[in-house]
Design brief:
Layout (H helix, E strand, L loop, with lengths): L1 H5 L3 E7 L2 E6 H4 L2 H4 L8 H16 L2 E2 L14 H13 L3 E4 L8 E4 H20 L6 E3 L10 H8 L21 E5 L2 E11 L4 E9 L10 H14 L4 E4 L1 H7 L7
Parallel strand pairs: 9-10
Antiparallel strand pairs: 1-2, 3-5, 4-5, 6-7, 7-8, 8-9
Length: about 250
Amino acid sequence: MESMYFWGEVVVHHRVHTRRYYDFTERLLPHNLLNTEDPNPTDEQFHDWYVLRRIGSIGLLWNKSGDGWLGISDLKSKERTAAIQRLLMADNLREVLVEGIKLPLYIRSMDALTLEAVIQQESEDAESHSSYSFAAVLAPLDNLIWDRELIRQLFGFHYRWEVYKPALEREYGYYVLPLLYNDRFIARFEPVMDKKSQTLNIMNWWWEPGERLTPEMLPALGEALSALSRCVRASKIHFRPEVVEDCGLKGLLM
């Protein structure tokens, strides 16, 4: 069934909780859509399309085997390298060099202007001593952290989703989320949703080395946690008292 789904022979008709119900694709999609000519008739065209799509999904990516390239059928290192070279020649990709990382990274040409604008804004903020704070709670499978090794080298942040690891082998917890603040990962925490009381409980919190809560962080971190609360439809957020005391989180109490 899973193979038929990946080949497009069946699609998900509906779901009941975590159970998926399938039906034949031809029963659910219009015939004119199913009979549309393949936009990528050759393997090379398909590889180019998928490589460009994958790099765009992550933002920046290198030509190195790893989690960031998983799930693309028949795309080995040789084919991936060839696709990247074709995309560079066609000016669909740009090369980005990052200090401290040996391999070049690649960005879609259409995204290069955004990157340049961010760099320019950071330079102007530094000169004017102004700043804009942003924070986000990331899901374990967020596109940004697909390639764990790339994130480790870029941010010095090592993250592993431990939901499938035996409890005694976990370093942190069952479902732990990374917390991004501006241009760095500052912490990770373990939320547990109590649906009966509609409470999002923060059970554990781990600061990254050298990080702590500062007054400047409060608005951005408060909004990030509120966004998570809205996402899971919680009416309130509760921090375990020991976590507040041990991690210095009194300023985040809502």
